[in-house]
Protein backbone atom coordinates (compact mmCIF):
# COMPACT_ATOMS: atom_id res chain seq x y z
CA UNK A 1 0.00 0.00 0.00
CA UNK A 2 1.46 3.32 -1.02
CA UNK A 3 2.06 5.79 1.77
CA UNK A 4 0.66 9.26 1.21
CA UNK A 5 2.89 12.21 2.03
CA UNK A 6 1.52 15.04 4.18
CA UNK A 7 0.73 18.09 2.11
CA UNK A 8 3.50 20.20 3.66
CA UNK A 9 6.09 17.52 2.95
CA UNK A 10 4.99 17.18 -0.66
CA UNK A 11 5.07 20.98 -1.06
CA UNK A 12 8.62 21.00 0.29
CA UNK A 13 9.72 18.36 -2.24
CA UNK A 14 7.98 20.21 -5.08
CA UNK A 15 9.55 23.53 -4.09
CA UNK A 16 13.05 22.02 -4.04
CA UNK A 17 12.41 20.50 -7.45
CA UNK A 18 11.12 23.81 -8.79
CA UNK A 19 14.24 25.56 -7.52
CA UNK A 20 16.60 23.00 -9.06
CA UNK A 21 17.61 21.65 -5.67
CA UNK A 22 18.33 25.00 -4.04
CA UNK A 23 16.79 24.65 -0.58
CA UNK A 24 17.26 28.31 0.36
CA UNK A 25 15.28 29.48 -2.66
CA UNK A 26 12.68 26.80 -2.03
CA UNK A 27 12.25 27.96 1.57
CA UNK A 28 11.93 31.56 0.36
CA UNK A 29 9.31 30.49 -2.19
CA UNK A 30 7.23 28.78 0.50
CA UNK A 31 7.79 31.58 3.01
CA UNK A 32 9.24 29.27 5.69
CA UNK A 33 12.66 29.01 7.41
CA UNK A 34 15.23 26.82 5.70
CA UNK A 35 15.44 24.54 8.76
CA UNK A 36 11.69 23.93 8.56
CA UNK A 37 12.02 23.01 4.89
CA UNK A 38 14.85 20.56 5.64
CA UNK A 39 12.82 19.01 8.45
CA UNK A 40 9.88 18.40 6.12
CA UNK A 41 12.15 16.84 3.49
CA UNK A 42 13.68 14.53 6.11
CA UNK A 43 10.21 13.56 7.22
CA UNK A 44 9.27 12.76 3.64
CA UNK A 45 12.35 10.57 3.31
CA UNK A 46 11.50 8.73 6.50
CA UNK A 47 8.01 7.97 5.26
CA UNK A 48 9.73 6.49 2.24
CA UNK A 49 7.25 7.59 -0.36
CA UNK A 50 8.05 9.30 -3.61
CA UNK A 51 5.66 10.96 -5.91
CA UNK A 52 5.66 9.74 -9.53
CA UNK A 53 7.75 11.90 -11.80
CA UNK A 54 4.74 13.07 -13.76
CA UNK A 55 3.03 14.22 -10.55
CA UNK A 56 6.11 16.07 -9.40
CA UNK A 57 6.43 17.72 -12.81
CA UNK A 58 2.79 18.78 -12.65
CA UNK A 59 3.20 20.21 -9.18
CA UNK A 60 6.43 21.86 -10.32
CA UNK A 61 4.59 23.58 -13.13
CA UNK A 62 1.79 24.68 -10.83
CA UNK A 63 4.30 26.29 -8.46
CA UNK A 64 6.01 27.99 -11.39
CA UNK A 65 2.67 29.32 -12.61
CA UNK A 66 1.78 30.64 -9.16
CA UNK A 67 5.20 32.31 -8.85
CA UNK A 68 4.88 33.94 -12.28
CA UNK A 69 1.34 35.08 -11.48
CA UNK A 70 2.62 36.81 -8.33
CA UNK A 71 5.42 38.49 -10.30
CA UNK A 72 2.95 39.61 -12.97
CA UNK A 73 0.64 41.08 -10.35
CA UNK A 74 3.60 42.95 -8.85
CA UNK A 75 4.59 44.40 -12.23
CA UNK A 76 1.00 45.38 -13.00
CA UNK A 77 0.70 47.06 -9.62
CA UNK A 78 3.81 49.13 -10.32
CA UNK A 79 2.50 50.13 -13.74
CA UNK A 80 -0.98 50.95 -12.50
CA UNK A 81 -0.12 53.00 -9.44
CA UNK A 82 0.40 56.19 -11.50
CA UNK A 83 -2.90 55.55 -13.30
CA UNK A 84 -4.57 55.13 -9.90
CA UNK A 85 -3.22 58.53 -8.87
CA UNK A 86 -4.42 60.07 -12.14
CA UNK A 87 -7.86 58.47 -12.14
CA UNK A 88 -8.81 57.83 -8.53
CA UNK A 89 -7.08 60.70 -6.72
CA UNK A 90 -6.79 63.44 -9.34
CA UNK A 91 -9.87 62.21 -11.19
CA UNK A 92 -8.64 62.21 -14.81
CA UNK A 93 -11.06 60.28 -16.98
CA UNK A 94 -8.68 59.76 -19.91
CA UNK A 95 -5.04 58.78 -20.14
CA UNK A 96 -2.63 61.64 -20.79
CA UNK A 97 0.53 59.60 -21.32
CA UNK A 98 -0.44 58.07 -24.68
CA UNK A 99 -2.66 60.78 -26.14
CA UNK A 100 -2.91 61.22 -29.91
CA UNK A 101 -1.68 64.46 -31.46
CA UNK A 102 -4.67 66.63 -32.41
CA UNK A 103 -5.56 66.56 -36.09
CA UNK A 104 -4.88 70.27 -36.52
CA UNK A 105 -1.23 69.64 -35.62
CA UNK A 106 -0.83 67.00 -38.32
CA UNK A 107 -2.75 68.39 -41.27
CA UNK A 108 -2.57 71.73 -43.02
CA UNK A 109 -6.19 72.66 -42.44
CA UNK A 110 -5.68 76.43 -42.67
CA UNK A 111 -5.06 77.78 -46.17
CA UNK A 112 -2.34 80.41 -46.24
CA UNK A 113 -1.32 79.77 -42.64
CA UNK A 114 2.33 80.57 -41.82
CA UNK A 115 2.40 77.41 -39.74
CA UNK A 116 1.84 76.17 -36.19
CA UNK A 117 3.42 78.34 -33.47
CA UNK A 118 5.29 76.65 -30.61
CA UNK A 119 5.86 78.50 -27.35
CA UNK A 120 8.40 76.88 -25.04
CA UNK A 121 7.60 77.45 -21.36
CA UNK A 122 10.23 76.07 -19.00
CA UNK A 123 12.55 76.87 -16.10
CA UNK A 124 10.09 79.13 -14.33
CA UNK A 125 11.61 78.31 -10.92
CA UNK A 126 8.40 79.64 -9.39
CA UNK A 127 8.90 80.64 -5.76
CA UNK A 128 12.63 81.35 -5.99
CA UNK A 129 14.00 84.69 -4.84
CA UNK A 130 16.82 86.36 -6.81
CA UNK A 131 18.35 89.27 -4.89
CA UNK A 132 19.40 91.99 -7.31
CA UNK A 133 21.91 93.39 -4.80
CA UNK A 134 23.90 90.15 -4.96
CA UNK A 135 24.27 90.19 -8.76
CA UNK A 136 25.13 93.82 -9.42
CA UNK A 137 21.51 94.77 -10.10
CA UNK A 138 21.24 92.95 -13.45
CA UNK A 139 18.12 90.97 -12.50
CA UNK A 140 15.55 90.49 -9.78
CA UNK A 141 13.04 87.70 -9.35
CA UNK A 142 10.22 86.63 -7.10
CA UNK A 143 6.62 85.50 -7.36
CA UNK A 144 5.31 88.96 -8.28
CA UNK A 145 7.92 89.42 -11.01
CA UNK A 146 7.34 85.85 -12.23
CA UNK A 147 3.61 86.53 -12.51
CA UNK A 148 4.23 89.74 -14.45
CA UNK A 149 6.61 87.96 -16.83
CA UNK A 150 4.15 85.11 -17.42
CA UNK A 151 1.44 87.63 -18.34
CA UNK A 152 3.92 89.46 -20.54
CA UNK A 153 4.89 86.18 -22.22
CA UNK A 154 1.30 85.69 -23.37
CA UNK A 155 0.87 89.24 -24.66
CA UNK A 156 4.26 89.57 -26.40
CA UNK A 157 3.90 86.14 -28.03
CA UNK A 158 0.51 87.14 -29.43
CA UNK A 159 1.96 90.47 -30.57
CA UNK A 160 4.87 88.84 -32.42
CA UNK A 161 2.64 86.24 -34.06
CA UNK A 162 0.21 89.00 -35.00
CA UNK A 163 2.98 90.73 -36.95
CA UNK A 164 3.46 87.60 -39.08
CA UNK A 165 -0.26 86.92 -39.50
CA UNK A 166 -2.45 89.91 -38.53
CA UNK A 167 -5.58 87.82 -39.09
CA UNK A 168 -4.16 85.10 -36.78
CA UNK A 169 -4.47 82.43 -39.42
CA UNK A 170 -3.07 79.73 -37.14
CA UNK A 171 -4.64 76.28 -36.69
CA UNK A 172 -3.70 76.36 -33.01
CA UNK A 173 -0.65 76.72 -30.77
CA UNK A 174 1.70 74.23 -29.11
CA UNK A 175 2.65 75.27 -25.58
CA UNK A 176 5.59 73.18 -24.40
CA UNK A 177 5.91 72.70 -20.65
CA UNK A 178 9.54 71.73 -20.21
CA UNK A 179 10.08 71.27 -16.48
CA UNK A 180 11.61 73.10 -13.53
CA UNK A 181 8.28 74.81 -13.08
CA UNK A 182 8.96 75.43 -9.37
CA UNK A 183 12.17 76.22 -7.50
CA UNK A 184 11.81 73.33 -5.04
CA UNK A 185 13.80 72.56 -1.92
CA UNK A 186 16.53 70.47 -3.54
CA UNK A 187 19.37 72.55 -2.02
CA UNK A 188 19.79 73.98 1.46
CA UNK A 189 20.15 77.51 0.10
CA UNK A 190 16.86 77.23 -1.79
CA UNK A 191 15.10 75.85 1.28
CA UNK A 192 16.37 78.84 3.25
CA UNK A 193 15.70 81.56 0.65
CA UNK A 194 12.64 80.52 -1.41
CA UNK A 195 9.73 82.92 -1.01
CA UNK A 196 7.27 80.09 -0.42
CA UNK A 197 7.53 76.44 0.53
CA UNK A 198 6.74 73.79 -2.06
CA UNK A 199 3.00 73.25 -1.60
CA UNK A 200 1.97 76.94 -1.59
CA UNK A 201 4.23 77.45 -4.61
CA UNK A 202 2.51 74.62 -6.49
CA UNK A 203 -0.92 76.09 -5.74
CA UNK A 204 0.10 79.61 -6.78
CA UNK A 205 1.66 78.45 -10.05
CA UNK A 206 -1.29 76.18 -10.82
CA UNK A 207 -3.67 79.15 -10.68
CA UNK A 208 -1.45 81.27 -12.92
CA UNK A 209 -1.06 78.49 -15.49
CA UNK A 210 -4.81 77.94 -15.60
CA UNK A 211 -5.21 81.61 -16.52
CA UNK A 212 -2.30 81.51 -19.00
CA UNK A 213 -3.62 78.45 -20.86
CA UNK A 214 -7.16 79.84 -20.91
CA UNK A 215 -5.95 83.11 -22.45
CA UNK A 216 -3.95 81.27 -25.11
CA UNK A 217 -6.87 78.97 -25.94
CA UNK A 218 -9.16 81.98 -26.33
CA UNK A 219 -6.61 83.65 -28.60
CA UNK A 220 -5.52 80.70 -30.75
CA UNK A 221 -8.55 78.43 -30.57
CA UNK A 222 -6.71 75.17 -29.91
CA UNK A 223 -3.78 74.26 -27.65
CA UNK A 224 -1.59 71.15 -27.52
CA UNK A 225 0.63 70.83 -24.43
CA UNK A 226 3.46 68.23 -24.37
CA UNK A 227 4.94 68.06 -20.87
CA UNK A 228 8.13 66.71 -19.25
CA UNK A 229 9.48 66.99 -15.73
CA UNK A 230 12.61 68.83 -14.64
CA UNK A 231 15.07 68.21 -11.84
CA UNK A 232 14.07 71.06 -9.50
CA UNK A 233 10.52 69.89 -8.86
CA UNK A 234 11.51 66.53 -7.36
CA UNK A 235 10.65 65.43 -3.83
CA UNK A 236 13.67 63.11 -3.54
CA UNK A 237 17.26 63.87 -2.52
CA UNK A 238 18.58 62.78 -5.92
CA UNK A 239 16.56 62.50 -9.07
CA UNK A 240 15.28 58.99 -9.72
CA UNK A 241 15.60 57.06 -12.97
CA UNK A 242 12.62 54.93 -11.96
CA UNK A 243 9.36 56.78 -11.32
CA UNK A 244 10.96 60.11 -12.21
CA UNK A 245 7.57 61.57 -13.11
CA UNK A 246 5.78 60.29 -10.01
CA UNK A 247 8.35 61.94 -7.73
CA UNK A 248 8.03 65.36 -9.38
CA UNK A 249 5.76 68.27 -8.52
CA UNK A 250 6.01 69.27 -12.20
CA UNK A 251 4.11 66.09 -13.09
CA UNK A 252 1.54 66.78 -10.37
CA UNK A 253 0.92 70.29 -11.69
CA UNK A 254 0.50 68.95 -15.24
CA UNK A 255 -2.03 66.35 -14.09
CA UNK A 256 -4.00 68.95 -12.13
CA UNK A 257 -4.05 71.18 -15.21
CA UNK A 258 -5.19 68.29 -17.40
CA UNK A 259 -7.97 67.57 -14.90
CA UNK A 260 -9.04 71.22 -14.90
CA UNK A 261 -9.27 71.38 -18.71
CA UNK A 262 -10.49 67.84 -19.43
CA UNK A 263 -13.92 69.11 -20.53
CA UNK A 264 -12.43 71.82 -22.75
CA UNK A 265 -12.12 70.17 -26.16
CA UNK A 266 -9.82 72.93 -27.39
CA UNK A 267 -7.03 71.81 -25.06
CA UNK A 268 -5.03 68.55 -25.22
CA UNK A 269 -2.34 67.47 -22.75
CA UNK A 270 0.41 64.94 -23.46
CA UNK A 271 2.08 63.87 -20.20
CA UNK A 272 4.35 60.83 -20.77
CA UNK A 273 5.51 58.72 -17.84
CA UNK A 274 9.13 58.83 -19.04
CA UNK A 275 11.59 61.74 -19.27
CA UNK A 276 11.00 62.39 -23.00
CA UNK A 277 7.98 63.45 -25.04
CA UNK A 278 7.94 62.49 -28.71
CA UNK A 279 5.49 64.24 -31.06
CA UNK A 280 5.11 65.67 -34.57
CA UNK A 281 3.89 68.93 -36.04
CA UNK A 282 2.92 68.08 -39.59
CA UNK A 283 5.82 65.82 -40.60
CA UNK A 284 8.42 67.53 -38.43
CA UNK A 285 9.38 65.27 -35.51
CA UNK A 286 10.23 66.73 -32.11
CA UNK A 287 11.75 65.13 -29.03
CA UNK A 288 11.21 67.10 -25.83
CA UNK A 289 13.35 66.49 -22.75
CA UNK A 290 14.31 68.69 -19.83
CA UNK A 291 18.08 68.52 -20.37
CA UNK A 292 19.35 67.60 -16.90
CA UNK A 293 20.62 64.30 -18.34
CA UNK A 294 23.34 66.26 -20.16
CA UNK A 295 26.29 67.16 -17.95
CA UNK A 296 29.68 68.77 -18.37
CA UNK A 297 30.90 71.81 -20.27
CA UNK A 298 33.79 74.19 -19.77
CA UNK A 299 34.62 77.87 -19.78
CA UNK A 300 35.12 78.04 -23.55
CA UNK A 301 32.17 76.22 -25.10
CA UNK A 302 29.97 76.30 -21.99
CA UNK A 303 26.81 74.23 -22.27
CA UNK A 304 27.16 73.57 -26.00
CA UNK A 305 29.50 70.58 -25.60
CA UNK A 306 27.32 68.42 -23.34
CA UNK A 307 24.18 69.42 -25.24
CA UNK A 308 25.61 68.39 -28.62
CA UNK A 309 26.95 65.12 -27.16
CA UNK A 310 23.62 64.44 -25.47
CA UNK A 311 21.71 65.09 -28.67
CA UNK A 312 24.01 62.68 -30.52
CA UNK A 313 23.36 59.92 -27.98
CA UNK A 314 19.60 60.45 -28.02
CA UNK A 315 19.49 60.44 -31.83
CA UNK A 316 21.45 57.19 -31.89
CA UNK A 317 19.19 55.56 -29.31
CA UNK A 318 15.97 56.76 -30.93
CA UNK A 319 17.07 55.68 -34.40
CA UNK A 320 17.60 52.17 -33.03
CA UNK A 321 14.04 52.05 -31.69
CA UNK A 322 12.54 53.64 -34.84
CA UNK A 323 11.71 56.92 -33.11
CA UNK A 324 14.08 59.24 -34.91
CA UNK A 325 13.47 62.97 -34.62
CA UNK A 326 14.32 66.16 -36.48
CA UNK A 327 14.65 68.63 -33.61
CA UNK A 328 15.58 68.15 -29.96
CA UNK A 329 13.92 70.51 -27.46
CA UNK A 330 15.38 71.11 -24.02
CA UNK A 331 15.58 73.64 -21.24
CA UNK A 332 17.60 73.33 -18.01
CA UNK A 333 20.61 75.36 -19.14
CA UNK A 334 18.90 78.79 -19.00
CA UNK A 335 20.59 79.77 -22.27
CA UNK A 336 18.54 80.36 -25.39
CA UNK A 337 20.01 78.62 -28.45
CA UNK A 338 18.22 77.88 -31.68
CA UNK A 339 20.44 75.66 -33.82
CA UNK A 340 19.72 73.56 -36.87
CA UNK A 341 18.93 70.35 -34.99
CA UNK A 342 18.06 71.55 -31.49
CA UNK A 343 16.38 74.34 -29.55
CA UNK A 344 17.53 75.17 -26.04
CA UNK A 345 15.10 77.32 -24.09
CA UNK A 346 15.96 80.26 -21.90
CA UNK A 347 14.36 80.77 -18.51
CA UNK A 348 11.62 82.89 -17.01
CA UNK A 349 13.81 83.48 -13.97
CA UNK A 350 16.79 84.92 -15.81
CA UNK A 351 20.25 85.57 -14.39
CA UNK A 352 20.77 84.53 -10.76
CA UNK A 353 23.37 84.29 -8.00
CA UNK A 354 24.58 80.87 -9.17
CA UNK A 355 25.26 82.13 -12.71
CA UNK A 356 26.87 85.33 -11.42
CA UNK A 357 29.19 83.59 -8.94
CA UNK A 358 30.29 81.09 -11.59
CA UNK A 359 30.95 83.86 -14.15
CA UNK A 360 28.46 82.49 -16.68
CA UNK A 361 27.52 84.78 -19.59
CA UNK A 362 24.62 87.10 -18.88
CA UNK A 363 21.29 85.84 -20.20
CA UNK A 364 18.14 87.93 -20.22
CA UNK A 365 14.94 86.10 -19.17
CA UNK A 366 13.40 84.81 -22.38
CA UNK A 367 11.40 81.93 -23.82
CA UNK A 368 11.58 80.38 -27.27
CA UNK A 369 8.88 80.93 -29.89
CA UNK A 370 8.90 79.62 -33.46
CA UNK A 371 6.72 78.42 -36.33
CA UNK A 372 6.58 75.00 -37.98
CA UNK A 373 5.38 75.18 -41.58
CA UNK A 374 3.73 72.17 -43.22
CA UNK A 375 6.20 72.30 -46.16
CA UNK A 376 9.26 74.14 -44.91
CA UNK A 377 9.57 72.91 -41.32
CA UNK A 378 10.85 75.45 -38.80
CA UNK A 379 10.74 78.96 -40.23
CA UNK A 380 10.30 82.06 -38.06
CA UNK A 381 12.29 82.11 -34.81
CA UNK A 382 11.24 84.70 -32.24
CA UNK A 383 12.71 84.58 -28.72
CA UNK A 384 10.34 86.39 -26.36
CA UNK A 385 12.40 88.68 -24.12
CA UNK A 386 10.79 89.43 -20.78
CA UNK A 387 13.03 91.73 -18.73
CA UNK A 388 11.48 95.16 -18.31
CA UNK A 389 14.85 96.84 -17.79
CA UNK A 390 15.79 96.13 -21.41
CA UNK A 391 12.66 97.64 -22.89
CA UNK A 392 13.02 100.84 -24.88
CA UNK A 393 10.58 103.74 -24.83
CA UNK A 394 8.00 103.71 -27.61
CA UNK A 395 9.29 107.04 -28.93
CA UNK A 396 12.90 105.83 -29.41
CA UNK A 397 14.43 106.51 -32.81
CA UNK A 398 14.26 103.52 -35.08
CA UNK A 399 17.96 103.98 -35.86
CA UNK A 400 20.64 106.23 -34.46
CA UNK A 401 24.38 106.87 -34.60
CA UNK A 402 26.42 107.69 -31.53
Envelope shape: elongated
CATH topology of the largest domain: Purple Acid Phosphatase, chain A, domain 2
Q: Kindly report the name of the CATH homologous superfamily of the largest domain.
A: Metallo-dependent phosphatases
Average pLDDT confidence is: 86
CATH class descriptor of the largest domain:
Alpha Beta
Spatial order of the strands in the main sheet? 4-3-2-1-11-12
- Low-pLDDT runs of 5+ residues are 389-393
Give the biggest sheet.
Answer: 6 strands, mixed
Q: State the domain count.
A: 2
> In whole angstroms, how far apart are the ends?
115 Å
Number of DSSP E strands: 13
Number of helices: 10
Written as H for each helix and E for each strand, in order along the chain, the element string is: HHHHEHEHHEHEEEHEEEHEEEE
Portion in helices: 25-40%
Question: What is the beta-strand fraction?
Answer: 5-15%
Class by alpha and beta content: alpha/beta
Radius of gyration (CA) equals 29 Å
CATH architecture term of the largest domain: 4-Layer Sandwich
Amino acid sequence: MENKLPVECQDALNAVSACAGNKSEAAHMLGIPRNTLCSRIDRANRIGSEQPTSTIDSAHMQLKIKTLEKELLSVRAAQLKEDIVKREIIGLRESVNDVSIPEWGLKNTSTGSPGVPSLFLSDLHWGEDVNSKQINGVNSYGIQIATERLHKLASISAQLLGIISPEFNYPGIVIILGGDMISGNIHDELTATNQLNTMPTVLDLYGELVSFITVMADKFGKVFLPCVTGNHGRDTHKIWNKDRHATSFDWLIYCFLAKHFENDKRITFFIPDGPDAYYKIYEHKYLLTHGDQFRGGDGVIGALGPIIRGDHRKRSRNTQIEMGYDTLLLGHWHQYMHLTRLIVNGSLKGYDEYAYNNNFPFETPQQALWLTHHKHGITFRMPVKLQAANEQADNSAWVSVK
